[in-house]
């Protein structure tokens, strides 16, 4: 996966705007948490660029950018968890999962559903 680091609060507006033309995955990761590392590794192993080639993927380091995580929770109406994956489509969160409930196949299904409706 070609992660883009999410390090600026202002990037959230760009993410919302971009999500109207392509899905955006936000992965909130704690570098000190073994569960977070496991969830990230599972997602990276399952991810297939050919199945979701236009999806933008952002990685948020929670330890250094907690303010961004708080803003994500507020903007998308989710409870902060770590690790956490959010899929943003058309400016809204269509998939939110944490810990071992983060499942690539479910994300792919949500992307397919969202973009079939358009």
Fold blueprint:
Blueprint lengths: L3 E2 L5 H8 L5 E6 L4 H13 L9 E6 L4 H11 L7 E6 L2 E7 L5 H13 L2
Parallel strand pairs: 1-3, 2-3
Antiparallel strand pairs: 2-4, 4-5
Order of strands, widest sheet: 1-3-2-4-5
CA radius of gyration: 13 Å
Low-confidence stretches: none
- The second-level CATH architecture is 3-Layer(aba) Sandwich
Q: What is the number of domains?
A: 1
Based on DSSP secondary structure assignment, what is the total number of beta strands? 5
Instruction: Give me the strand/helix succession.
Output: EHEHEHEEH
Structural class: alpha/beta
For the record, what is the CATH homologous superfamily label?
Glutaredoxin
At CATH level 3, the topology is Glutaredoxin
Helix tally equals 4
Q: Which key features would you list for this structure?
A:
alpha/beta, 4 helices, single chain, 118 residues, five-stranded mixed beta sheet
Descriptive notes:
The chain is α/β, with parallel strands linked by helices and 118 residues long. The protein has one domain (4-116): Glutaredoxin. 38% of the residues lie in helices and 23% in strands. The chain has a five-stranded mixed β-sheet, sandwiched between helices. Strand 4 and strand 5 form a beta hairpin. The longest helix is centred in the middle third of the chain and has 13 residues, at 34-46.
Summarize the structure.
With about 120 residues, the protein is an alpha/beta fold. About 40% of the residues lie in helices and about 25% in strands. It has a single domain, classed as Glutaredoxin.
């Amino acid at each position: 996966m070609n992660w883009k680091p999410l390090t600026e609060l202002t990037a959230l507006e760009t993410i919302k705007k971009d999500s109207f033309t392509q899905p955006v995955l936000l992965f909130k990761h704690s570098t000190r948490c073994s569960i977070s590392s496991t969830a990230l590794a599972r997602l990276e192993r399952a991810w297939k660029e050919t199945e979701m080639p236009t999806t933008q993927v952002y990685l948020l380091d929670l330890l250094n950018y907690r303010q961004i995580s708080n803003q994500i929770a507020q903007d998308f109406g989710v409870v902060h968890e770590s690790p956490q994956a959010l899929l943003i489509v058309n400016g809204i969160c269509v998939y939110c999962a944490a810990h071992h409930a983060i499942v690539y196949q479910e994300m792919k299904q949500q992307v397919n559903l969202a973009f079939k409706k358009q």
